[in-house]
Design brief:
Elements lengths: L22 E5 L4 E5 L5 E4 L4 E6 L3 E7 L4 E5 L18 H19 L8 E6 L12 H16 L2 E7 L5 E6 L4 E6 L7 H14 L11
Parallel strand pairs: 2-4, 7-8
Antiparallel strand pairs: 1-2, 3-6, 4-9, 5-6, 5-7, 9-10
Helix pairs in contact: 1-2
Length: 215
């Protein structure tokens, strides 16, 4: 039987300016370098690599320009600044934070050669993972926000996999636009819940009059 030859990883291309602190590694399953983002992070690339994250109640938007081959992903949660389960455009902390999360991703894509008219968006997450931690369905608020944001901005939503009760592992391939999603139905540890609970507490403590600087 012939031996399987595993191609040695090529040299990792430098991260774009501003994203040097994002963890990157060789993903031998996909034969590409991968960037792993955590809650509150964003990553944009012009290289043929993978961006991955694990989502509970948080939402990730995967955005790319298919013409100029630049794209990225964010991972965010709205602060719980209200008992209302919807979001509004009144300039409050929740909306300002959500807008910042989306606009930073989009602006970085445009900054690195993308064109707004070409942008394609896919949205994932918003699971009812933190439902027992608060009377508000955090995931549903995040879904409502991102979908309304895309509608108001006139951006093309090509695909969505949101809601339900499970965490998700998401792998986004910006060069091809392909996304792989795995629902973690048999996840027994509380890593995602604990990480998102800490993240939620962090953003809820952000002063409403101050700058939002969680990325």
């Amino acid at each position: 039987m012939a031996l399987v030859q595993h191609r040695a990883p090529q040299e990792m291309s430098p991260a774009l300016a501003g994203f040097e602190d994002i963890k990157r590694y060789w993903d031998k399953t996909n034969d590409k370098y991968a960037a792993k983002i955590l809650p509150g992070e964003v990553y944009v690339t012009t290289s043929d690599e993978v961006i991955t994250t694990v989502l509970g109640s948080c939402v990730s938007a995967c955005v790319r320009d298919p013409v100029f081959k630049v794209g990225g992903m964010n991972h965010f949660m709205l602060p719980l600044s209200s008992t209302d389960s919807s979001w509004s455009s009144d300039g409050g902390l929740s909306t300002r934070y959500g807008n910042f999360a989306m606009e930073r991703l989009i602006n970085e894509i445009l900054k690195h050669g993308g064109s707004r008219k070409n942008l394609e968006v896919k949205v994932f997450g918003g699971g009812m993972v933190l439902a027992n931690a608060t009377s508000i369905n955090v995931g549903e608020r995040n879904i409502q926000f991102v979908e309304e944001y895309l509608r108001l901005e006139g951006l093309k939503l090509l695909a969505r996999d949101v809601g339900d009760i499970y965490p998700r592992k998401v792998l986004f391939f910006p060069h091809s636009g392909r996304v792989r999603v795995k629902k973690l139905r048999n996840m027994h540890n509380r890593t995602v819940v604990e990480r998102e609970t800490a993240y939620m507490q962090q953003i809820d403590q952000t002063p409403s009059a101050g700058e939002i600087d969680l990325f």
